[in-house]
Amino acid sequence: MDRFQFCVWLLGGSGVAAWPASLLAQSAPTAPRLDTASAVDLAGRLRMLSQRIVKTYLQVGQSIAPEQATRLWQASIEQFESHLGTLRAFQPTPAVRNAMAPLATQWAHFRTQLAEPPGRQAANLLYDANEALQQAAHRNTVAYENVVGAPLDHLIGIAGRQRMLTQRMAKFYFYRTWGLYDAPAHMELHLSRAHFTAVLPAIENSPFVSEPVRAQAAEVRRVWAPYEQVLFASQNPAQMRKEADRVAALSEIVLTAAETLVALLLAQAQGRA
Q: CA nearest 55: which of 260, 247, 188?
């Protein structure tokens, strides 16, 4: 794909089929009420989107479910910019302002790198910039969590981190299938699994959450099981590539379940559940 073709593809000229309704639903969330709980949710969503953008970029470059990946990639960039703009209008503390400035800078730098058509060399260059963006997004989320310090705001933050990890694991899987950053991607994939599995009981057993939240945390655990199995079935990149389509699909299924978990926590924090 040359640069002209890439620009046509980026602008939606690829003739891609319509998404399933479930993908559309999570790709176009309604604008939240601007309070600390919804700000934690939005900031946490930036963490997730930072990983989803590169996950789908790697998919397109390797022709792993490329049509859906193209649409998700475009939508994720648009969402990141929209959510960042919303959050920049709500910076209630110096700590938030101090975290927001480097996040905006990292996004501007990262955004310019996305202009390159998906390829091994471009993906190689994205690695460090994407990690810096994710770290800046995490610091920004923590700053919003600490505005009030409410237990439910913190739980929204850690449930939102689960959302991010669903995409982060697939991202590192796809770096390995492309033969890039093999050792660090292997390590980060396993670290992400450790974080994901450690946090689920903390949400399920929290004294602050409602029964619907507990039930949804159990649902996340249920859909996580087959995703975990396929992610770690093989350490051989060639064998991993054979399961890449399944990893892409399962990453979105677990993300949807984690999105519902965050939404239930947000509703509880706002007194709607």
A: 247
Look up residue 76 and give its amino acid: S
Per-residue tokens: 173: 């899987």
Q: Average pLDDT for residues 196-215, to the nearest whole number?
A: 94
What is the tens place of the pLDDT at every residue in 185-203?
999 999 999 999 999 999 9
Distance CA 257, CA 222 (A): 10
Within 10 angstroms of residue 16's Cβ, the number of other Cβ atoms is 15
Tokens of 221: 């655990």
Taking 80 as the threshold, does the pLDDT of residue 245 lie above it? Answer: yes
Residues 70 and 16 sit within 8 Å (Cβ to Cβ): yes
Decide: 265 and 155 in contact? Cβ < 8 Å: yes
| 272's tokens | 């709607």
Distance between CA 192 and CA 53 in Å, rounded? 17
The answer to whether the beta carbons of residues 50 and 137 sit under 8 Å apart is yes
Alpha helices (H) along the chain: 3-10, 21-27, 36-62, 66-88, 94-113, 120-148, 151-177, 182-204, 211-231, 237-242, 244-269
Diameter of the chain measured on Cα atoms: 55
Q: Domains of the chain: which residue ranges?
A: 33-269
Residues 142-169: tens digit of each pLDDT: 999 999 999 999 999 999 999 999 999 9
DSSP 206: -
Please state, in angstroms and as integers, the Cα–Cα distance from residue 225 to each residue in 150, 173, 197, following that order.
Answer: 31, 16, 10
